[in-house]
Write a structure and sequence with these properties.
The complex is a heterodimer of chains A (175) and B (406). With 175 residues, chain A is an all-alpha fold. In chain A, 78% of the residues lie in helices and 0% in strands. In chain A, helix 2 crosses helix 3 and helix 3 crosses helix 7. The longest helix of chain B is centred in the N-terminal third of the chain and has 22 residues. Chain B is elongated and about 95 Å long. Classes of the chains: A mainly alpha (175), B alpha+beta (406). Chains A and B meet through helix 1, helix 2, helix 3, helix 5 and helix 6 of A and helix 1, helix 3 and helix 4 of B.
Chain lengths: 175, 406
């Protein structure tokens, strides 16, 4: 075991944080298997690199996870516009039998992903962690931002999200 | 009080400021239309955006996540060789097989260890985990693999049974002695690889690009079977009804897996060619590895077992442990020549497998499909060599590629 963690410490961290890390990543990338892959990558980084003695390990894990997730999301968005469109079509077909609600849900998730991919990564990260229940103090520690500016940064990020969402989808909303 | 900063309005909305500050702000808001208006805007935007993100699904309470299984997978992929357990070799190989099964299902990268596992280590698993994969296989006198019989087995009932896994681990570390555990090493040419491995390497003539050669190390171990402990393990698995024969107790089993050769073509995942220790980046781009092809060649492993063991009986017990009825297990057991057949457990995650003809012999093509596209492995045995061809992408060309073996 590398770094400052004994195998027991590492296991304890893994057991404690893995499910939630997967949950956040699944929100970001929208696929459970891929979220688990990315979570595994997060813990591999933890496993490989020693952190400074006084590190906030939980914060580091969440920052690293959201970084990786957003990178993956942006990469997918850049690369696979065509494939995504195809996937959306097939979602339509697949979900038709499961009812209208599900189609709307997956459409909506795709839109949220599109917007998150276009935001500044730091803003997307802040929004995702806030939406997963991090307090301002935790956000400040995880993202290494001033405690006194978390509110301002949240306002900016949320406004950027809303604006981009409306630009992209206002015409389709409520159709 | 002056107007409230945007930061504090947002923090007030989230009740992050504490009662004292809250009441100051409330006093101000009561008299300041502009701040009140701005607070309403901020609150509306916040609720809108957080609601959008929450529509992506819950972040907590993942009922589908078995964190201990995930930890085991993680260790199997990244930690194997650093364990201090003396039995690292056998365990690693077994774990890599489990990992491979999941990898196959998810269309994840193939790891070198799993490629090896396909060819040889199912056999090792059988001994490393004698209760299941193991007894489902054959040991008798001296065995050499001549053909492969795929069987769908489902050990899912045993997955996640931690006390059971711990008992197995403990038994293995007590009872198994590793006698050879060589590392992989690169070879500079086909001739070099052949010389290192001790048998002539075959390459795919349809691939004109120059492959890389990696020679896999020899692995060998022996173990003494402790029937009572095995029976305890069965009890833990909830199958106290399956009784192991008394002749099994004290049986000495030895396994020798000779050096192997991996021939690797194209742009393969980073670390593929390394000694199996470097992790592969887990986010391959779809299609990036489409030209990656790995051919594993390993002479048949040799298993020595007391000749008086009733292999078919043991195999039937193994099949039952894997969820078959006693009748099904007997019928299947009778169809297999246990002296020369390697029972290949098909990962339950694999999307399909089919029997094909390769180079004049029967082969098994196992396909997986995941969100990153399809992967496949084609396995066959010819002239005492077990071949495993692993590809990313469409398996349609697998047989033609395999037939081009020179």
């Amino acid at each position: 075991m590398n770094g400052r963690f004994s195998p027991e410490e590492f296991e304890a961290l893994f057991v404690k944080h893995y499910p939630r890390i997967v949950g956040i990543l699944r929100r970001i990338v929208g696929d459970h298997g891929r979220a688990e892959d990315l979570a595994s990558e997060v813990f591999l980084k933890l496993h490989r690199h020693s952190l400074p003695q006084d590190s906030n390990v939980a914060g580091w894990l969440y920052r690293t996870a959201t970084n990786l997730g957003i990178d993956a999301l942006r990469a997918t968005a850049r690369r696979n516009n065509f494939e995504q469109a195809a996937a959306r079509d097939s979602n339509h077909n697949k979900t038709a039998e499961n009812g209208f609600d599900q189609i709307v849900r997956s459409e909506k998730a795709q839109r949220v992903h599109d917007v998150l991919a276009e935001l500044k990564p730091a803003q997307a990260q802040l929004l995702l962690l806030r939406a997963s229940g991090h307090s301002y103090r935790e956000l400040s520690a995880a993202l290494e931002i001033e405690p006194g500016s978390v509110g301002t940064l949240l306002v900016r990020a949320e406004e950027a999200f809303e604006q981009r969402y409306l630009e992209l989808f206002a015409s389709e909303e409520d159709v | 009080m002056n107007c409230v900063s945007e930061n504090n309005l947002r923090a007030y909305h989230d009740a992050e400021l504490g009662a004292a500050v809250d009441s100051e702000i409330e006093a101000h808001l009561a008299t300041c239309a502009s701040c009140s208006h701005r607070l309403r805007e901020i609150a509306a935007t916040s609720e809108y955006v957080q609601g959008q993100i929450e529509s992506l699904g819950p972040v907590a309470l993942e009922p589908n996540i078995d964190v201990h299984a995930a930890l085991s997978r993680f260790k199997a992929e990244h930690e194997g060789t650093t364990e201090s357990v003396p039995l690292a070799a056998a365990l690693d190989i077994d774990r890599s097989n489990q990992t491979g099964a999941r990898a196959l299902a998810r269309g994840k990268r193939w790891r070198p260890l799993w490629i090896g596992a396909v060819a040889a280590t199912i056999l090792l698993c059988s001994l490393a985990f004698p209760f299941g994969r193991g007894l489902a296989q054959r040991f008798l006198g001296t065995l050499r693999v001549e053909k492969i019989q795929p069987v769908r087995l489902d050990f899912s009932a045993l997955d996640g049974n931690r006390p059971l896994q711990e008992m197995l681990r403990q038994m293995i570390s007590d009872k198994v002695m590793v006698t050879a555990d060589e590392k992989m090493q690169p070879a500079s040419s086909a001739a070099d690889a052949s010389q290192l491995a001790g048998f002539p390497v075959h390459v795919l003539s349809t691939r004109t690009d120059a492959p890389k050669f990696i020679v896999g190390g020899q692995h060998a171990f022996h173990m003494t079977i402790d029937r009572n402990r095995l029976q305890d393990i069965f009890d833990q698995a909830g199958r106290a009804d399956l009784l192991l024969p008394a002749t099994l107790d004290g049986a000495n089993v030895s396994v020798n897996v000779p050096r192997s050769i991996m021939v690797e073509y194209g742009n393969c995942p980073e670390g593929h060619a390394a000694a199996g220790t470097e992790p592969v980046p887990s986010q391959p781009r779809t299609g990036t590895w489409a030209n990656c092809l790995a051919l594993q060649e390993v002479p048949s492993p040799v298993v020595n077992m007391p000749a008086d063991l009733n292999l078919q009986q043991l195999a039937e017990i193994g099949f039952q442990l894997a969820g078959m009825s006693a009748t099904q297990a007997r019928e299947l057991g009778q169809t297999i020549d246990w002296k020369s057949t390697l029972v290949l457990p098909i990962p339950r995650f694999a999307s399909s497998y089919t029997q094909v003809t390769v180079n004049g012999v029967q082969g098994t093509l196992i396909q997986g499909s995941g969100h990153r596209g399809p992967d496949y492995v084609l396995i066959w045995v010819k002239n005492g060599i077990i071949y495993g061809l692993v590809g990313h992408g469409d398996s349609g060309s697998a047989v033609a590629l395999a037939n081009s073996l020179n």
